[in-house]
Every structure is written in C-alpha cells, then in structure tokens.
Design a protein that fits this description.
By secondary structure, the chain is mostly beta strands. Strands 1, 2, 3, 4, 5 and 6 form a 6-stranded antiparallel β-sheet that branches. The protein is globular and about 40 Å long. The N terminus is likely disordered.
Length: about 150
C-alpha cells in the first residue's frame, strides 16, 4: 500500500523539487482545519477537501494522534499547498513531525512520510503524503475507533 520512494533529488537545499513529488498532504490530527497546529500552514493552503485513507489505524497519544499501518481507516483532510511555499512547508512539517531528515520516507524518526492513495469525499482518488508512526510507539496510547481525531473521546 505504501510507496516509500524518496522525495527526489533537490527536495531540500535550495534547488527546485520535482513536480511529481509536490503531493498534497493528508492531515488527520492537529494540522486539520480547526485544530491547534493548522494555523502554522493555513495561509499557504490553496484548498482542503475531506478525505480518508484505508489500511491505517489512528491512535490517541494525548496531545496528538499517530497513524500506523493496519486494518482500519483514518478520516482527515487533503491539503494542497501553494507551489511557491511547498518546499518551505514540507521542511516545516517534516520537522514538526520529527521525521529523520537523512531519510524522510523511512522509519527512524517519530514519524516518516509515505505516499498513500487517499479516497476523496464524494468520489475519486488522489496520491498524498501522510505521516506515519511505528505501532510500538502508537500502542502506548488508545486506538481511536472510526479513525477520526475530531471525534475522539478525552
């Protein structure tokens, strides 16, 4: 289900990112519209659309959720970033999510960035980046039935 392909040459360090790697972001927690970290990216989001991802489970770790590969589904939003801000936002999100900068698409940090197929609300599919964590870390929390951070119980 995941394709942990690298983000391509030049994804950081001043050179332009390959257009094929400028995917929208599937957000499922504190980066979703209305949640506490959305303000970090709100001004550069060109569009947001309700979406879900299959084959992933969502866990409540207290102040934030963690998605892991599994048998459930996760509800979220597909966020498109204005192209002129994309590399800056990618670096910001990778840092926020604790991604290993030497291997952003491989496990090793708090999260890693993976390409996933996202089901759009209504119809259609899109490819997007999603930040995933390790099951061992996620299972320290409580699984969120239905996979919707906004519907979690305290």
């Amino acid at each position: 289900m995941t394709d942990r392909a690298t983000a391509g040459p030049g994804w950081r360090g001043g050179s332009s990112m390959a257009l094929a790697d400028m995917l929208p972001f599937f957000t499922y927690g504190t980066l979703r519209p209305g949640e506490r970290n959305h303000a970090l990216i709100e001004s550069v989001v060109s569009s947001a659309q309700a979406a879900l991802v299959e084959g992933v489970e969502l866990w409540n770790l207290g102040r934030f959720p963690m998605a892991v590969e599994g048998t459930g589904q996760v509800v979220g939003d597909l966020l498109h970033i204005h192209p002129e801000h994309y590399e800056t936002i990618l670096a910001l999100l990778d840092e926020l999510e604790g991604v290993n900068p030497a291997a952003p698409t491989q496990p090793g940090g708090l999260y890693w960035r993976a390409r996933y197929q996202v089901q759009l609300h209504g119809s259609g599919l899109a490819e997007a980046w999603i930040y995933l964590g390790e099951q061992a870390r996620a299972s320290r929390g409580k699984r969120i039935p239905g996979g919707d951070w906004k519907q979690r119980s305290s």
